[in-house]
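Q: What does the assembly look like in three dimensions?
Context provided by user:
Components: two
Sequences:
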Amino acid sequence: MGNFIKDRKPQEDSWTPYTGLEDMDNLPSGDVYVPFDEWKSSRDALLKRNSRLGVILENTDNVAELVEDFDRLDLVVLQFPKMADGRAFTQARLLRERFGYKGEIRAVGDVLHDQIFYMQRCGFNSFEMRPDQDIPTALGAFDEMTVTYQPAADEELPIWRR
Amino acid sequence: MYQYSQEDHQLLQERVSQFRDQVARRLKGDLSEDEFKQQRLRNGLYLQLHAYMLRVAVPYGLLSSEQMRTLAHIARTYDRGYGHFSTRQNIQYNWPKLEDVPKILDDLAAVEMHAIQTSGNCIRNTTSDPLAGVARDEIADPRPYCELIRQWSTFHPEFNFLPRKFKIAVSGATHDRAAVAVHDIGLRLVKNDADELGMEVYVGGGLGRTPMIGKLIREFLPPHDMLTYLEAILRVYNKLGRRDNLYKARIKILVHETGEEKFRELVEEEWQQVKTSSLRLRDEDIKNIEAHFKDPEYEKLSDFDVDYDKELISDPMFANWADKNIELHKKDGYRVVYLSLKSRNQPTGDVTADQMDAIADLADKYSLGAIRSTHRQNLVLSDVKLSDLHSLWQELTALDLATPNYNHLTDIISCPGMDYCALATARSIPIAQALTERFDAYDFINDLGDISLNISGCINACGHHHVANIGILGVNKKGVEVYQLTLGGSAREDASIGKIIGPAFTADEIVDAVSDVLDVYLTNREDPEETFLTAYRRLGQGPFKEKLYG
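A: Here is the predicted structure of the complete assembly.
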């Protein structure tokens, strides 16, 4: 750990990712998140678990497919395979703004402090920072700008209507 | 002009202090060049062949005289005494020192300017008609819409890491002076039969390696829906645009590969979800922004001025300039004046610090304190009285800004080429200069009439050679710079991509080749009224090929 930020604070991460090696019936105890494909194929088994559940999406997955499971999903993990690949920004905004998802949205992968300001505006509230990232710098990035022009997950109105 | 709000100012200050900190860390060695690259590119700072290049945004090409003086100050203090106006109405400095860049950004912020989103894979500065608000053929002023797009796109949280850069242009007149057809999104303000204002939406135009004309995906979009529609297009692009290949990442490739019809459906489908969001513009939202662009206090003047007419007759040099570099103004007694940045003595688009200061003074003296930059790399004084034209011309002549060549052969668009650019594979400035030397005779230029000649120093096509009547592309073949000739392009409302006429020419041959092309036109045109482009479209490649290679 040591590189995890949630709700603007460094925290311990309570979640365990499903690595693809475990038997679905024999997952570690506690909060687990699984790839979207596994979620679709093993949904019934997973729902029987007495723990919180999450799902990790590819950045090409359609977030609309999660909507009916929102009440059972405490975490949606979105991926940044490269810093320059910004598809998950759209996924996050759709989850929050269009579909009203209230749980944790987490950024993983090439997560640098440069993106944090934008990520939080799109609805991300937790961040697995790339291991080389300086955590104090990342924490400072939430407030690096105080002016926002557009409506987004954190702001209902454009600046000209406020 | 748009006046910055408290928030606009605050944003710039925060941005500058953030970048100052990053530069300090880079200079101390705490940031590697690689890490720093992400930061500097978000602030318009490129690493070029010899030095850093800073690109400063000129929102929709509009400058106050005060801003122009600051640009002069920057050129003089931090650069080598000049700046370069680009085809996207911005200004570039080729020699800033890294440690000076925060100071430059401070100076810019003091006059409401910046370098935000002038590089990187984000929505770039919106460009527009340099005659916005004064053109006789204007349907509606595009500037309020450009300003709304500026606000919407600045640090847009969802669209700052797009597959590739994204350029938007807005035009509001019958004639397209903003090259909307070769932008990622081009918007044209139009009126329907009921006299209501709307927008044509073109998507997927662009130059570069794969030149394409934008596709009209919506014929009449109410202006209130502009931002929701843009958001829908950008979202479709961010989701589906290619990220596997840099050269196939622009939206033009997505539109092309998806198919125009299917792409339109995707956009419309997304738009249905967002069209009633808070981004939908209300009447008062548009009115409030329009208030920033109200007409200045024009005097009530006649459109005839006896002295002006006399000066035209008595001074043929003045008459020649007036014939080419002046356009009608929507108000009687005023004219729009083009300041040519295409003299024989300076590279295309370059302006010295002294010229900038002088232009600012002339703008105050003759043109209500405003200056515009154009996509053909010239400047405009938009509100000059008929009675002032002769004095203005004399002052411009003394400044070498009165070359009478607007929209004529030597009004050449050229990229900086291998003299500055790290991407270029051939020189372009020397070719532009050689062409100007050869064809600079007044009579010849006059006789050729309306024509465009553009030069790019590599296939990235920053010199817009694809959309010139005569385009020149410099490439490097086995260590030798050679120049391909394309004919028949246009960046206006009849936009088209030029076609390569045949094998390339060496640097020594290219000027003669252009001369041959001009000869074919002069010999074959139906009458002097038939422009080069019209004649080429009628004649086809045949006679040109024969002359060049026959």
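Follow-up: The CA atoms of residues 27 and 99 of chain B lie 8 Å apart.
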